[in-house]
Structures are given as C-alpha cells and as structure tokens.
Amino acid sequence: MVTRRALRIGLALAACLFAGACSLGRLAYSNAAFAYSKAPPALAWMVGDYTDLSSDQKDWLRERVDAAFAWHRAQELPQYQQFCERLLAQAADGISVDEARAANKALRGYYDHTLDHVIPDLADLLRRLDGEQVGQLEQRFARDNEKMVRDAGDGSIEERAARRATKYAGHLEEFVGPLTGEQQAIVARHAARYEELTDMRLADRKFRQSETLALVRAHASREEMIAGLHRLLVDTPSWRDPAYRGKLREREENLFGMIAEVSAALSTEQREHLQSRIRGFIRDMRMLSAQRG
Q1: Rounded distance between C-alpha atoms, residue 207 and residue 213, angstroms
Q2: Of 86, 150, 231, 285, which is most buried by a Cβ count within 10 Å?
C-alpha cells in the first residue's frame, strides 16, 4: 500500500489518477471502470472544496484534469496491469514479506511518477490563486489539521486499535472474502502494534503546508513552483525528519508482516477469491487503457 503523505490538492489528483482501479473508495472494489470514469468530476469538486474557484478557473481545471486522465489511461494503466499480473502469480502460493515490500516500492514509484506528471498543473493552479483564495486555502489546511488531531485522539488507544483492525479486515475481505477468527486475530495483533505518531505527522503536514503557502505568496515563477512542489511531494527524504522516516518504515514493515501472515493463512477458497478479484482489476485496466478520449 502507498502512504498518503502529501499536500491534499496534489494528493487528490495523484491519488485519483494513480488508483484508476481503486479510486472513490469501495465503489472501485465492485466496478473499477465506473469509479475511474467518475474520478475527474469528483476531483474537480474536491479541489474546489479547498478554495472558491472562479468560473474560468473551474473550466481550466476540468480541462487539465481530463488531459491528465487521458495521459494516465494511455501511459500508466498498462504498467498497473503488469503489476497486477505479477501479483496474481504471487497470490497463488502466498505473498511473502519481501514480495509485499517490493510491491509497495513499485507502487510508490508509480505514485511518484504520477505526481511528477501533475505537479506542473498543480503549480499552474496555485499560481492562479488570488490573495483571498490563498487565505481560504490556509484556513482549510488549519481545519484539516484540527480534524486530524481530533480523529487521532478519538477514544482510548484500545478503541482506536480496534477501529484500525476493523478497517484493515474490511479491506482484506473485499479481496479474499470473510476472514476466519484466526485471520482476524492476526489483523488485530498488527493493528495494535501500529504507532500513531500524531505529533510527528502533524509537524510534517504543517511544514509542507507552510512551504507551499510561502511559494504562492512569494509569487514564485512556474519553474520555482514546480521545483518546490517536487521537493515537498516527491523528494521527501530531502527535508523529512529522519526519526519520522524511521517510524514510517517500521509501520510499513508491520503492515507487510500482516499481509504475509494473512496470505499464508488463506484457505483454497479465499485464495481463489483473491485471484478472481485481481483478474477483474486486470480486465478493467485492459479495457480502460484501450479507451481514448
């Protein structure tokens, strides 16, 4: 899985593009092609939720989003199809920790490549904002941060771990069918090991947000804006707290361990269910990448 650790507007665009078969939440599990087709208007709405765009800005945004999805459909989805074909072969006898780690690295690479493609559009959008719109963006960042802190502290540590376990189990069951008691126990054990890192996460977000707002308010040139956004969104090791990076790696390793343990415990029926789901994604990606316009 790919972690979501980027400026929300940039991430919204990249996430929708990146997850052609996984966008718009659970809808994609049942109908990836429909979810992919609905992502562009949903994305435009999401961006507009961060600041009040003018009619001209909305028209410009829709054109850029449509162009980005056309690029993604033609250039990126075939690579995701190949990824899923490799995953299909691995799923036949269980996904190991090393395979889960390699899959995450591959997905991160696809994700960063998509970000790099859309960063010029994001730079152009930010450079089009006026002072009032920048103020709205800053206020929305602050509200998002407050919500993150509230959500992170909602309930006891045990209650939050239980909610994570339920969420993890729900995602897994979308692919393998109902989990057994043993499998649910594996998920719960790993969910309890999850380190929340709220203070580090908040500091990371605030740095990214403040640096982005500084670029906008300094009226950075297009080249400066693109370089700055690349640093903030893609080249995160150049500025991220090494301690936070280490903690994130630990969380990922815990996730890889959970995937491997559950994969090893799958029944024949569950393994066939997983392979069927992956084949469905491959069919959707093949169809979508063949479309034009």
Answers
A1: 10
A2: 285
Q: Does 1 fall in a domain?
A: no
| Residue 191 CB burial class (10 angstroms; 0-12, 13-18, ≥19) | buried
Considering its fold, how many domains does the chain have in total?
Answer: 1
89 lies in some domain = yes
- CB neighbour burial string for 82-92, b if at least 16 within 10 angstroms, e if fewer: ebbeebbebbe
Whether 2 is in a domain gets the answer no
Q: What is the residue whose two structure tokens read 């009619």?
A: 55
Cα→Cα distances 228→208, 215, 271, Å: 10, 8, 44
Q: Does any domain span residue 3?
A: no
Q: Kindly give the parts of the chain with pLDDT less than 70.
A: 1-49, 292-293
What does the alpha-carbon distance between residue 39 and residue 13 come to, in Å, rounded to a whole number? 9
The whole-angstrom separation of Cα 24 and Cα 21 is 9
User: Are 36 and 23 a contacting pair, CB within 8 Å?
Assistant: yes
Using a cut of 0.85, tell me whether the model's pTM lies above it. no
